[in-house]
Amino acid sequence: MRTLTPLKEIIIQIILTTFIVTLVSCGPAQNTEEPGLYNQDNSNRMDNYKISNDSLSNYYRTDNDLLGNDILIDNRSANERINYRLNAQQQKRDSQFLAGAATTNLKQIKAGKLAQKNGKTEEVRELGKMMEDAHQKSQKDLTALAQRKNIQIPTFLDVSAQSDYDEFFYESKDNFDKVYTDMMINLHEESIEDFEKASTESNDTDIKNWAVATLPDLRKHLEHSKECQKKSSHMMHLKKN
């Protein structure tokens, strides 16, 4: 086999090296697009960035609006809960007022009947009759009002009220007129206080009007009871002498 001279080997190595370098330096095909297309691509990217920022701003603005609405809803809900509690408390007070008035009526009716039977003086017996009639009418009006308002009121004395009545009955055997007139004065003073409060504080127009309309009779009954007490006391004093 013919061997290559050193000079030929060098020449061949140079040729191979040049060929390899040429291949490597060529690389992938260069972008032959016009410069304007590059600028347009940059412009599109900037537009996309602007749109993205606008969308993000709208998102946060919308989110803040929703948060504001949530706060308004929460505030409205809180106010509604407060109003509900206040209304519930007022309805409870109205119910207690009507129930208390009914209990007082029942006491007055029962004690009035007893006064007509056990009164020592004519004044006390007449007072008993007046109280029975007046509070029977009051109870009738009260029952109609309570039914319209869907409020339950007592139709008979409960254990506590009956106990008070029994105590009054036993204490009054020997001194009925004084015990009875004292009871009338105390009951009417308490009723006037309750009715005056309901006439100014109740939010229910019907209950307020009923309280206002009843007050004059209660005040008249109180004065009549005081007068009866004085007359009865004077008559009993005369009888003892």
From TrEMBL:
A Pfam family per the record: DUF4142
Domain DUF4142: 93-226
Domain of life: Bacteria
InterPro entries: DUF4142 (IPR025419), Ferritin-like (IPR012347)
PANTHER family on file: BLR2558 PROTEIN
Protein name listed in UniProt: DUF4142 domain-containing protein
